[in-house]
Write a structure and sequence with these properties.
The protein has 267 residues and is of the alpha/beta class. The protein is built from 10 helices and 9 strands. β4, α4 and β5 form a beta-alpha-beta unit. It is elongated, with a radius of gyration of 21 Å.
Length: 267
């Protein structure tokens, strides 16, 4: 059995809501072994009470940072210093930085320069520079609303469905009735345009391309890409939702697994 990648999980409690802890821990554990779990904030403030119940349950080590200046996030510098200490003194393969603050952009770039994986997690309001500096970025508020749909009465739901019919699919509300402030950072239209462009540039003579290869390219192009952001559990399902594309399944050399290919639909 191969060794799991080891990660350091660093959470900015001053900048991220405690309601996301379930998503944060699930996504983190899917990456590998979380050997370091630290959360930073002013734990003397009553505003942090919502986090305190989550500390023991999720084995998070709280790091106290007093807020000496009103409106200034004191956790940023502590997280950056600790991340650099971990980089040079601990055997980890990557870092998971949970914050919507652009102040961590340079840190993410520096860690990646040292050959470490950097996974960011934050809300859709996160500035683009930090999102792009990460190898992957998980949009917490979008994932949260997909898992916790808002309950609507029948009249409101009928109104929502009528609104969806009046706009292009790329601009429609996402499953769960997500509001504008919880939309994916990269919209679906941009993803579709990039998919078609990559097919034009990388497909074989018959126009076919491996679905897995296409997915890897999209992930490299957009660090925040996650098919779940658009209401699909699998990348293949997302591709199949585009009427311009078609897929095909072939048997692999061992005759057991299936190889999926995709190309633009012929007129």
């Amino acid at each position: 059995m191969r060794d799991e990648n080891k990660y350091a999980l660093l959470i900015d409690a001053e900048n991220v809501s405690s309601k996301y802890i379930g998503i944060v821990t699930k996504e983190a554990q899917s990456l590998g072994n979380i050997t370091i779990r630290r959360i930073y904030g002013d734990w003397t403030a009553t505003a942090k009470n919502s986090w305190k119940d989550s500390l023991l349950e999720n084995s998070l080590s709280p790091i106290q940072q007093y807020s000496y200046t009103v409106g200034k996030n004191s956790s940023d510098s502590a997280m950056i210093i600790d991340a650099m200490d971990i980089l040079y003194t601990n055997d980890v393969d990557g870092f998971i930085i949970v914050s919507s603050d652009s102040d961590f952009t340079k840190l993410a770039m520096r860690l990646r320069e040292s050959g470490k994986r950097v996974i960011g997690m934050g809300e859709s309001k996160t500035p683009t520079p930090f999102v792009r500096a990460c190898e992957q970025f998980k949009t917490l508020d979008v994932l949260y609303k997909n898992h916790h749909p808002v309950q609507k009465n029948n009249a409101a739901e009928r109104t929502r469905r009528q609104e969806i019919k009046c706009v292009p699919a790329e601009k429609a509300l996402l499953p769960g009735g997500q509001s504008k402030d919880a939309q994916p950072i990269t919209n679906l239209r941009a993803i579709k345009e990039m998919v078609i462009s990559l097919l034009d540039e990388n497909s074989d003579e018959d126009g076919w391309m491996y679905l897995s290869e296409l997915g890897n390219m999209i992930q490299r192009m957009y660090s925040d890409f996650d098919c779940r952001n658009y209401g699909f559990a699998k990348f293949g399902k997302l591709i199949e939702s585009f009427p311009e594309l078609q897929t095909r399944k072939d048997d692999s050399s061992n005759g057991i697994t299936k190889i999926v290919l995709v190309r633009k639909r012929e007129d």
